[in-house]
Amino acid sequence: MTIHSGDDSVDDPVSALFEKAAAAYADRDFLHVPWEACRDYSPIAVTVTYSDARVRVAGLAARFRAAGYGAGHRIAVALDNRPEFFLHFLALNSLGASIVPLNAAMSMAELAYVLEHSDASLAVTHRGHEAHLKAALTNNIALWIAGEEGDRVPPRTAATAAPVASSGEAALLYTSGSTGTPKGCVLSNEYFMEVGRLYTGLGGYCRFGIGDRLATPLPVTHMNALAVSFMAMLMTGGCLVQLDRFHPSTWWQSLRDARATAFHYLGVMPAMLLKAQPSPSDDFRGVLRFGFGAGVDPRHHAAFETRFGVPLIEAWAMTETGAGAWITANREPRHVGQRCFGKAPPGLAYRIVDDAQNDTERGVAGELWVRREGEAPRRGFFSGYYKDEAATRQAWAGGWFKTGDLVRQGDDGAFFFVDRSKNIIRRSGENIAAVEVESALQAHPDVLASAVCPVPDELRGEEVFAFVVLRPGRSGSLESATRLQAHCRQALAYYKSPGFIGFCAALPQTASQKLARAEIKKLGAGAVASGEAFDLRQLKQRAARGAES
């Protein structure tokens, strides 16, 4: 059951859908945070009903409006996975403003880039991130510490008066791209509505009903938590159980306390949960209907479902594709343990092509190209990369969106994930551009050259590996490796820094003098397996509560 009707326009703002939900489900829980996930800022678990949220959203909207913010303005929001994030999103959406979700774990330089590039006119955060955000702000961007009694929203200035977002834009979401510099994906209200309608209409294992409570530990700076889980609950009058992050030791208890009926996961989570000692309370049949995510290790897929009684539904999508190209293994056969992510749904056109851009034969891996069938091939996709029309044209060259993912198709039409063709490391759900880490390394005076690639990691799927060529007179040692990693942690978010560093005399190159990425990846895996690389993973911890990073 969903609250939207066939008469609703996909161009309607998300806030209009929220108003309908708040009117229909006033007394139901809208947002919930278990105490384990909010103990840093609340003495008890936090619950916000639809009616409570309606009042708070209206109050926030009035404050932003009084300060001069409205249609076409962008507001950067660094509120972590707290309920306030979604309340600010809805309030600004009701004014026609767009949000720029900020990951406060980013370095000052990374935050400064996003704030400047996005043309944000205001940044909103809580007291815990105040100093970090202030250090990253430019002169034109004001900072508001939200949630403090009597604190006025800083008024819009002449320097930030002009609208910068196009009509219908709901969010500008930055993702790591293979070129190194984060790209700003423009996401419209239509994008959010299409995502919600597709997810709630999947059926099969992914069924939604009255009173569902969907738990997710994923960051709101990603499309999954920002749009998928949020819109599903909004469209069905359900409750979003938003955890601060994934804590293996308290995961199941948090879900029990929150009365969750389904959850979202990253591929690394099943591996970590299976490490716990078996317990009679492990069986969740009849309690948790499904888990929804991507990237579960094939070795753990069946074992998890057998032990916990919850089907893990693998899916494929990208921030850029949204609901325009979304594939889900929500019906049998799911080919459990084979990296299967389902069959193409009706309306999705696709190609699997080789390096010469010829269609591959069934069973042969190639890059996945996608678009919608019919006269609107980009419906449900992102609107484009902000300030980078060239990259948008390149991604859509020839009328197909180039995903950069290598897949193969089975005899029954199901898709199986093989690898990524782009230079991206996927660590604990975070996309990390190899060239971004390389740029940070090569800014160190001891480094002559570097090459970064993914290597397998038992818990996090992949880890960042760096080969480094040092300048003459420098020696490769644990001390120098630790120094280089510390340098990267200053320049980048902690999770982007190398978990392994290996030193070499020269980097493999192709005949055209480019890095031989495939060979480097094999050499990196070999260096880790043989112990020839320095293992620095224990140093990769976020500033707070880092033991489970």
Task: Describe the protein.
The structure is a single chain. By secondary structure, this protein is of the alpha/beta class. It folds into 2 domains: 14-406, ANL, N-terminal domain (Rossmann fold), CATH 3.40.50; 431-548, GMP Synthetase, Chain A, domain 3, CATH 3.30.300. The protein has an 8-stranded mixed sheet, with helices on both faces. The longest helix is centred in the N-terminal third of the chain and has 17 residues, at 50-66. It is globular, with a radius of gyration of 23 Å. It starts with 13 loop residues before the first helix and ends in a 14-residue tail after the last strand.
CATH topology of the largest domain: Rossmann fold
Report the sheet-strand fraction.
Answer: 15-25%
- Distance from first to last alpha carbon: 37 Å
Number of helices: 15
Write down the CATH class of the largest domain: Alpha Beta
Identify the strand order in the major beta sheet. 2-1-10-9-11-12-13-14
Summarize the amount of helix as a percent range. Answer: 25-40%
Number of strands: 26
Tally of discrete structural domains: 2
The average pLDDT score comes to 92
| 3D shape | globular
Secondary-structure content class = alpha/beta
The CATH architecture of the largest domain would be 3-Layer(aba) Sandwich
Report the C-alpha radius of gyration, rounded.
23 Å
CATH superfamily of the largest domain: ANL, N-terminal domain
What's the story with the biggest beta sheet?
8 strands, mixed
Task: List low-pLDDT spans.
Answer: 544-549
